[in-house]
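Researcher: Let's do a round of design. I'm pasting the structure tokens now; please hold your answer until I've finished.
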């Protein structure tokens, strides 16, 4: 019998061990890291952005606020002069418009209470005025319909605002007595305020406005008063969120 040398015996043992371990190693799952499946790693990695994603995001319009939401608060201050003529002349015959020395200062606070969508919203506020020359104070509760859905509003914020509501004065002014057609006027009348508001492009929460502050009896419906008074007001408004 031929006796194998020690070197041959060691080589044969290593070969047999490799053959015994190889099937188990071949069947073992290949992993990227211990205890982590390749599928879970692939799902955790974010997908690379597509070439047009950044351009699409830049072109997407600013999302509209959901209709029905309550909007921001506002505070404002304004100053104006009395127009002695008829309100309709100011609107349709501005060439006949004139002003007198009687002046008024106003402050107001309010909030957007409803967003109808399509650029329309509603505001409710409280207005305090002082008729500096004719005397007396005014308290009014303006309910306003506002439209700001102009195509250029992102570059130049702009609003059209129409407010109505009850108005109470502490003293009936000489102008209202003269235009009342009943010789006495009334402390409680209707307020009608058309307005245009333009915001600052870099700070849309600030805006300036021009308003016609009109107080009358709605053609005799309120206490028989057919006329009224109109002040041409300019002012500054600040909108803010209290949430």
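Researcher: That's everything. Go ahead.
Model: Designed sequence:
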């Amino acid at each position: 019998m031929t006796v194998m040398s020690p070197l041959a015996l060691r080589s044969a043992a290593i070969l047999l061990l490799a053959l015994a371990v190889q099937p188990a190693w071949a069947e073992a799952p290949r992993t990227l890291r211990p205890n982590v499946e390749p599928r879970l790693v692939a799902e955790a990695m974010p997908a690379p952005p597509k070439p047009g994603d950044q351009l699409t995001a830049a072109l997407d319009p600013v999302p509209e606020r959901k209709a029905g939401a309550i909007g921001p608060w506002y505070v404002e201050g304004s100053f104006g002069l009395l127009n002695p003529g008829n309100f309709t002349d100011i609107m349709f015959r501005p060439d006949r418009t004139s002003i007198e020395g009687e002046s008024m200062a106003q402050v107001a606070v309010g909030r957007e209470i409803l967003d109808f969508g399509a650029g329309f919203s509603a505001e409710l506020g409280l207005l305090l005025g002082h008729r500096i020359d004719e005397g007396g104070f005014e308290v009014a509760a303006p309910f306003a319909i506002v439209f700001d859905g102009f195509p250029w509003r992102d570059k130049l914020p702009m609003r059209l605002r129409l407010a109505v509501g009850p108005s109470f004065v502490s003293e009936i002014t000489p102008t209202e007595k003269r235009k009342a057609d009943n010789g006495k006027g009334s402390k409680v009348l209707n307020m009608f305020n058309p307005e245009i508001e333009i915001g600052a492009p870099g700070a849309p929460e600030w805006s300036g406005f021009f308003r016609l502050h009109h107080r009358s009896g709605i053609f005799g419906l309120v206490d028989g008063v057919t006329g009224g008074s109109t002040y041409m007001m300019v002012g500054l408004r600040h909108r803010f969120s209290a949430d």
